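U., I forgot to send this yesterday:
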Amino acid sequence: MTKDEILKAHQQYLEWLDSLESLSEEEGNTPYREGKWTPNEIIMHMAEWDKFTLQERIPLMKEGEKHQAYPNFEDFNAKAAALANEQTFKETIAHAKEQRKAIMGELKKIDEIEWDKYFYIGDHSSTIRNYFTDFLEHDLHHQKQISPGYSS
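Result:
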């Protein structure tokens, strides 16, 4: 994906968040399937990973830089779900928009020539382009969960 395509996908994510504002608080806090997360928890999960990326990843996305490995996913995600339950669904959407807009602002500042230079996360190499291509796949996975008729 090009830088412009990635930024466009982030903009589409923001538009998707806008569309969720039509859900009631009850709908936003009802699991999409028994035993699964609520839309509020899913959006907070995504927002907290955005915040992590903004604070812990983007500043070191430079050639040869070494990032710490990812935090424990289960612990991180549990904390995000707990945060969602401390606020309204609408507040979570606003938080998610704020985080994603900040990421977009930072990505716009990075010349596309820098997008294919390798840095390391733990023992694995990545590039800005690869990181955000995977990032957007994660977005799509969770967007499908909140979409009507999702069954997985």
